[in-house]
Amino acid sequence: MVNKKNAEKVSKIKTKYIFDIVCQANISKMNSLGEIFRKEREKRNLLLRQVAGSIDMDQAVLSKIERDERKPTKQQLIELVKFYKLDEKEIMVEWNSQKLVKQLKSEEYAIEILNQSIKKLKSKK
Q: What ranges in the chain are assigned the alpha helix state H?
């Protein structure tokens, strides 16, 4: 007979496994933010220095963002969204989602943490 502790342990392992699969699937489905910005720049036939100059960002910083070697700050993200006229909500959701996944992916109780956070956010409305 499986005792309660072992059942909880198995449940936690399954939850963590499912969380990892969902995170990986979401990452592989969506282009990274850097890819999105690079594709938008190339679609408009703009040089890196032209975009960087237009939004007052160092060219090297923009290059690293496009190659996903650096995550943009919120302000940099907003400037890029405005410049390319992208859907701000979609980009901000993805940016914050990536931050959460990075922070929680090694947490044993990641799903529970997210569920509790959702409850708290809903109660504040």
A: 4-29, 33-43, 48-54, 59-66, 74-84, 88-104, 110-123
In this structure, are residues 107 and 113 in contact, taking their beta carbons and an 8 Å threshold? yes
Tokens of 89: 């909500």
pTM of the model: 0.69
Which letter, b or e, does each residue of 59-89 get, where b requires 16 or more Cβ atoms within 10 Å of its Cβ? eeebbebbeeeebbeeebbbbbbebbeeeee
Q: How many CB atoms lie within 10 A of CB 6?
A: 10
The string of pLDDT tens digits covering residues 30-82 is: 588 999 999 999 999 999 999 999 999 999 999 999 999 999 999 999 999 99
Q: Give the pair of three-digit tokens for residue 45.
A: 């036939």
Output the CA torsion 20→21→26→27 (10° steps): 60
Nearest C-alpha neighbor of 40 from the set 98, 32, 94, 57: 32
74: left (phi over 0), alpha (psi -120 to 50) or beta: alpha
